[in-house]
Amino acid sequence: MTRAGARAHQAGVVIDISHLSKRHGSATAVDDVSFTALPGRVTGFLGPNGAGKSSTLRILLGLDAPAGGTALINGRRYRDLDRPLRTVGALLDGAGPVPDRRAVDHLTWLARSNRIPRARVGAVLELAGLAAVAKQRVKRYSLGMGQRLGIAAALLGEPEVLVLDEPVNGLDPEGIRWVRRLLRDYAASGRTVLLSSHLMAETAETADDLVIIHRGRIAGRGPLAEITAGHPSLEAAFFALTGERSAA
Ligand SMILES: Nc1ncnc2c1ncn2[C@@H]1O[C@H](COP(=O)(O)OP(=O)(O)OP(=O)(O)O)[C@@H](O)[C@H]1O
């Protein structure tokens, strides 16, 4: 890690979402959502399909404007960060590389446009288990390989914050274990991890803190142990908090 990175690191970077709202036409996708994600913690952002997770993350990453509220990274909007990829590494559903590009070229282009040392490209390809297939065109990648490439891109700038939307999507058991360990290690080194998912068991394995979103609103938040207290599983706690009935 660079010295500047180490300094930011000691302080830790906080994600602060406050009274956020977003509408798509007449539908409310995000309704007065507030939560924080703290350094040294994996924060699980958990909710079913259509709950509003991606809409929230897109605003956090400066891809959409909110109808109201703020989404800040250490007090600043994403678009106001000096070198965003060096502060925030993100994996978003459907925001992949150009399919005709070779994986290594995609990462090299990202590194160059963010003034990230070229050596990081080889390092993240290695880390993501893609070194042997780095020269393949991305369109030939399997879903899991594409996911690994997305995570490699997120790690490129050695960011203080990782924001990952459904990172285990398409990964095999070994890949899932790799992501889990990566996120745990990342948080253990004092950095901030926001993990968005609809997978309850997977989130329960990885997260320290939880933010539960349901129909655009926060249904519960707090340390995992507090959310699940008195329930046999996170799934049971989720259904109790949201008032939905389990399919089982
Ligand atoms: N671009 C869009 N135009 C219209 N409606 C949208 C758009 N994006 C999201 N929505 C709607 O907003 C709501 C929240 O969607 P969002 O994608 O944020 O949920 P999510 O929790 O990320 O779900 P998923 O896990 O399925 O991605 C849903 O009802 C969805 O249909």
Number of helices: 10
Mean pLDDT figure: 91
| Strand arrangement, major sheet | 5-6-7-3-8-9
CATH topology of the domain at 3-95 and 164-242: Rossmann fold
Which regions are unreliable across 5 or more consecutive residues at pLDDT < 50?
4-9
**CA gyration radius, whole angstroms:** 18 Å
User: Main β-sheet: number of strands, strand sense, barrel status?
Assistant: 6 strands, mixed
Q: Give the SSE order as H and E letters.
A: HEEEHEHEHHHEHEHEEHH
Number of DSSP-assigned strands = 9
GO molecular function: ATP binding; ATP hydrolysis activity
Organism: Actinoplanes auranticolor
Domain ABC transporter: 15-240
Family: Belongs to the ABC transporter superfamily.
In short:
With 248 residues, the chain is an alpha/beta fold. The chain is 37% helix and 24% strand.
Topology at a glance:
Layout: H1 3-11, E1 15-24, E2 27-37, E3 42-46, H2 53-60, E4 68-73, H3 84-87, E5 88-91, H4 103-113, H5 119-127, H6 143-155, E6 161-165, H7 173-188, E7 192-197, H8 200-206, E8 209-214, E9 217-223, H9 224-228, H10 234-242
Helix pairs in contact: 4-5, 5-6
The structure holds adenosine-5'-triphosphate.
Residues 24, 27, 29, 47, 49-55, 93, 198 line the site of adenosine-5'-triphosphate.
